[in-house]
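Retro notes, item 3 of 5
We never archived the inputs for the 4H3 complex last cycle. Fixing that now. Sequence and ligand:
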Amino acid sequence: MRGMRFDVLTLFPEAFQSFLTTSIIGRAVAAGHIEVVLHDIRDYSTDKHRKVDDVPYGGGAGMVILCQPLFAAIEAVKALADDHAPVIYLTPQGLALTQQRCEEYVEQRQLQRMILLCGHYEGIDERVREALVDEELRIGDYVLSGGELPAQVLMDSLARLVPGVLGNDASAKEESFSLALGRAQEYPHYTRPAEYQGMRVPEVLLSGHHAEITAWRLAHVRQGRD
Ligand code: 4H3
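Structure as it came back at the time:
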């Protein structure tokens, strides 16, 4: 399977800098397993002052991102590659991002490319949503000031399912296996030293008996809770 390409539309491309250069994601980008292309929505404004937002019709707090730069940006970015790419808007009203949905994106649909739309302020003009947004996703039940963090969460959760991204290919599969059993669940992990301030690592984990270790881990699976 080919890597994934993400085209990110944002007013704050600099918010992605450390994410894209650090740790596993940094290596995945450097190795070409994932490609992330950042697009500054402001670059698509035709206004002489590069205006991207205005006050809401009907009144109310905050600013709304204009149709013009969003239509121009999305249409231009769609045309940059041949692959069909759904436009995904990160919003608290969207479908919940779950491990199962991540696996469906990466494996079942063999999705190669996504366009991620990050809003800010009060959000985007509704006509952009109606005409151009294919899916809405939320990373959790809370409101954030921008879609940039949710976009990074989405890319991180998908990237680690792309073959080659994790040094140890088993890690992602193992974790999704345990997730398939129910809610997010994990067994306890330990590393050296075997004793720290009087606290011992369970002896069975030091034993090298793989069947017993597996049984211990199954017995100590922790369930995610609300
Ligand atoms: C996503 C986006 C929470 C989530 C978001 C989430 C800012 C959406 C702006 C942005 C709109 C106004 N908050 N839970 N906020 O995934 O574009 O809400």
